[in-house]
Amino acid sequence: MKSKMSTLRRGALFASVLYCTSAQVRATEAPRLVHVFVALADNAHQGMVPVPAMLGNGDDPERNLYWGAAFGVRTFFGKSTEWRETQRIENPYKGVLERIVFQHRSADVVMVADAYQGSAIAKALTDFLSAAAGIRLHKAEFSVCAFRSTQPCPPEDPELVVYVGHDGLMDFSLAQAISSVDTVKRKAIILACASKQYFGAPLKPTGAQPLLWTTNLMAPEAYTLKAALDGWILGEPAEKIRQRAAAAYAQYQKISVTAALRLFSSSW
């Protein structure tokens, strides 16, 4: 009987150690990272269809159409029940007016969103493609693990990269191609007008795979991105994510789901 009790105690101790070790491993694992590059709407410096002056000031993230307005990335995700803001940094880098870090409330996913000055749209595009290629953008970047620590940490590698804003490639070409520096196949979401047509050639050498992009003119507002991220977090296939994005776009733009589905693609 004593031998049996000892065996049970040893078994319980082993299970306890195993549980604690597993929990420790989970706690130290890096969260899945999404990096969102937002080019602020700018009537003066972009070839976009002009919007009201208050929304189209590329130097004012607070009220900008793609950032601080009702359906901008900062405001829309800030009001979402699934995400919470953990850090806000003003002017973290040249050309970036604000960075916000969001932590998903039920999944180990962190989203870093950067608001680029409207006149710095070429930099926003270059940084987006660089991240897609696995190129680290800064030597000492504020950590996306800021929700766990108040100290800056080394840069972390995004699993999903996102561009939101005017399709600057309609207006200009980037100086040179940006090629992959590793073998990681990152995913890319590009919410800009006709992004499949204009971003196809620049995205190819980065090695990233399109998860969602567009075939025609569209409003790159945050409800589409959130719907796509909902599916991505759940591990849904690309076609299901496309359907989610189209349903959200149809709802907010008051168009048919059929028309919205034609606007989005998940393939080359």
Strand content: 15-25%
Oligomer: single chain
Q: Which runs of at least 5 residues are low in confidence (pLDDT < 50)? A: 11-27, 140-149, 151-155
Helix/strand structural class: alpha/beta
Main-sheet strand order equals 2-3-4-1-5-6-7-8
The succession of helices and strands, N to C, reads: HEHEEEHEEHEHHHE
What is the count of helical runs? 7
What is the alpha-carbon Rg in Å? 21 Å
Intertermini distance: 68 Å
Number of domains: 1
The percentage helix is 25-40%
User: How many beta-strand elements?
Assistant: 8
Mean pLDDT: 87
Shape assignment: globular
User: What characterizes the major β-sheet?
Assistant: 8 strands, mixed
Quick overview of this protein structure:
The chain has 268 residues and is α/β, with parallel strands linked by helices. It is 33% helix and 20% strand. β2 and β3 (96-104) form a beta hairpin.
Account of the 3D structure:
The longest helix is centred in the first third of the chain and has 27 residues. The chain is built from seven helices and eight strands, in the order αβαβββαββαβαααβ. It has an eight-stranded mixed β-sheet with strand order 2-3-4-1-5-6-7-8, with helices on both faces. β3 and β4 form a beta hairpin. It has 268 residues and is an alpha/beta fold.
